Amino acid sequence: MVREVLVYPNKILKQKSEPVTEFNEELHTLLDDMYDTMVAKNGVGLAAIQIGVPKRVLVINIPIEEQDGAQPKENTIEVINPELIECNGKTKYQEGCLSVPGYYEDVERFADVKFRYYDRYGNVHETKTDDFLAIAIQHEYDHLEGKLFIERLSILKRKKFEKEWKKRQKKK
Ligand code: CO
Predict the structure, then answer these.
(1) Total number of domains constituting the chain
(2) How far is the CA of 125 from the centre of ligand 1 (A)?
(3) Ligand 1: centre distance to CA 68 (Å)
(4) What residue ranges of the chain have pLDDT lower than 70?
(5) Phi and psi for 157 in degrees, rounded to 5?
(6) Does 88 reside within a domain?
(7) What angle do CA 98, 39, 34 make, to 5 degrees?
(8) Which of 5, 107, 158, 171 is exposed most, by the fewest CB atoms within 10 A?
(9) How many CB atoms within 10 Å of residue 121?
(10) With a threshold of 0.85, does the pTM exceed it?
(11) Domain range for residue 120?
(12) SS3 per residue for the chain
């Protein structure tokens, strides 16, 4: 089921999410809804807090370029209670967010990330990545801590963003 995505400056997005303790039906429904919502809104990642659920749950699905950006469900990485265990190097990437729709800006992130997480059945996994997934996991992890990518911009860029955002809200 597609759920409503909370948009900046909704205060719920600033809430810190709590770890998942039960890998049950409720969690599976949440994950399924998160996938439906992410794909419906053309996102590559979504954190549970973005649909108002303060749990440490993320979904990431990197579109397949060769297949017109398809995002088959079986390609979804379901990330529960993630821990970033090793972060190295630096990279910059133009990020966007379903909670800050229509705004894109360069953000500096670690280039290499090793992270540990649980899947929907409670099995533990470890992944090391230095490609787009590394950016995505850091962006989504920030959501669990109540942080949006616009909070990682320089003061100048942030001011510019706030101005643009206010202007846009008025137009609505
Ligand atoms: Co986001």
Answers:
(1) 1
(2) 23
(3) 22
(4) none
(5) -65, -35
(6) yes
(7) 75
(8) 171
(9) 10
(10) yes
(11) 11-171
(12) CCCCCCCCCCHHHHCCCECCCCCCHHHHHHHHHHHHHHHHCCCCEEEHHHHCCCECEEEECCCEHHHCCECCHHHCEEEEEEEEEEEECCEEEEECCCCCCCCCEEEEECCEEEEEEECCCCCEEEEEECCHHHHHHHHHHHHHCCCCHHHHCCHHHHHHHHHHHHHHHHHC
Residue 5 belongs to some domain of the structure: no
Per-residue burial over 27-40, b if 16 or more Cβ lie within 10 Å, else e, is: beebbbbbbbbbbe
Please tell me the distance between residue 140's alpha carbon and the centre of ligand 1 in angstroms.
6
140 catalytic per annotation: yes
Instruction: Please tell me the distance between residue 46's alpha carbon and the centre of ligand 1 in angstroms.
Output: 6
pLDDT at 84: 98
Beta-carbon neighbours within 5 Å of ion ligand 1: 97
Identify the active-site residue in 140, 145, 151, 164.
140
Q: Is residue 2 included in any domain, yes or no?
A: no
Q: What is the pLDDT of residues 19-41, one digit of tens each?
A: 999 999 999 999 999 999 999 99
Residue 3 lies in a domain: no
Return mean pLDDT, the chain. 97
